Amino acid sequence: MGKTKKLTLFGLIGITMAFFGTVRSVPTLAITGWTQIFYMVIAAFAFALPIALMSAELSTAYPEEGGPQVWVKNGLSEKWGFVTSWLLWVQMFFGMVMVASTVGILLGYVINKPDLSSNNYFIFAVILISYWGVTLLNLKFDMVKVAGNWGAVIGVYIPFVILVVLGVIYLIKNGIQSNSYLGGFKTSDLVPNFKDLGSLTYLSGIIFIFAGVEISSVHANNIDNPKRNYPIAVITSVILLAIFNIIAGLTVSNAVPKGKLELANITQPYMIFCKNLGIPSIVVNIISLMILIGVLVQLSAWVLGPSKSMIKVADEGNLPKFFQKRTEKDIPITFVMIQAIVISLVSILYIVVPDVNSAFLIITITTTILYCVVYILIAISAIRLRYKMPDFDRPFRLGSKGNGLMWTVSILSLISIVFTIIVSIIPPSILKPSQYTGYVIYQVVATIVMIAIALIIYKFKKPEWKKDNNSPDDIKRSS
């Protein structure tokens, strides 16, 4: 049996950056103007980096499949391990609605009907069609193999590079526009205006760029000398991502007139850049189509990923046998269909909330809050495991001796996570005062209900829920 090939330092940097390279979050950065530099530094170094480093230690100590659920199960209890896996599944109900909403907006530009990008009913219909479409395709074909890596290259990397290049050329040609989000610069613009608490909510949307940062830690065991190379890779990746996002965000802030930026419409800055630089409008249609392909590929990958993790939790006896059903292709059909139905229901927000911008931001924030709850459990588990299993082998360890560095990193992450949750509950300035109460109630209730459902299911779980590995379905699939 051949020796597994180790990742190089540069290879791991590339993989880590690939997880978070996206053009979709650029408008959320851009709307904050010069303050985005402050927000990005907080998101990258107080949020993403501590969580990535803690996750590296945990993933190398517990390399078995399951990730956060395994860490929290060992650090706290099986109950909280289940809550962790549950929240990582249900957050996609909101996250995928947010991602799918961009399909309708992009489609409007692909077919030269940009007015459709602000039509709530059109966005709602396209969310349903696109998500159910990729769901049904995944039931029939292995879409991850069909799409491969080309979807990310076409739909993410190329459009991101084009956006940065066009933005820099636009800035060189036109300078800083006085009527833009960057115009009339004052030193005070570099830090948030704490008198306008609603503006702080955008931090939640910016932090969403790094949601899922723990995923890259699965590669920590696959790199030579992880103790030295993993932190170098993570720190380098976070710095590069922060720089690229800030360049993209600032150039978009400079191009879009103040008050006119559309959070869910990444095509908007491309249109402005191309028109100003004399580039044919068909380029915008092509770029919109490329991003649209990338979004559909991303949706496709998420259809099966979280559900395959959840069915393992179901097999352990945490959910009724109904959830353990699989198709002949081993697809967890119950989870796949439930998530499609719930995502359809969540997408009704695009009809209830008249403004597409507001609906997009609200759903992004809900996803971030649910992720934050998971990160709180991970941070507490990382500390507890140092005392619970002090002699456990940790190929990557925060600090050579003692627990001081782990305490420092964990506390820093907990402070940033709790702060993110607090600002997420503050009604964003994009909303009307009449919507403030409804917004707060929605975010609090959505979070509490999602956690409560997991705790209730676990409380009433039954021994007979545990999977019998000699069941007829298993024998049939193995034959």
UniProtKB/TrEMBL annotation:
Membrane topology: Multi-pass membrane protein
InterPro entries, per the entry: AA/rel_permease1, APC_superfamily
Pfam families the UniProt entry points to: AA_permease_2
Keywords in alphabetical order: Cell membrane, Membrane, Transmembrane, Transmembrane helix, Transport
Primary location group: membrane
Cell compartments where the protein resides: Cell membrane
Transmembrane segments: 35-53, 86-109, 121-139, 151-172, 200-220, 232-257, 277-304, 331-353, 359-383, 404-427, 439-458
Domain of life where this protein originates: Bacteria
Entry protein name: Glutamate/gamma-aminobutyrate antiporter
Organism of origin: Neobacillus rhizosphaerae
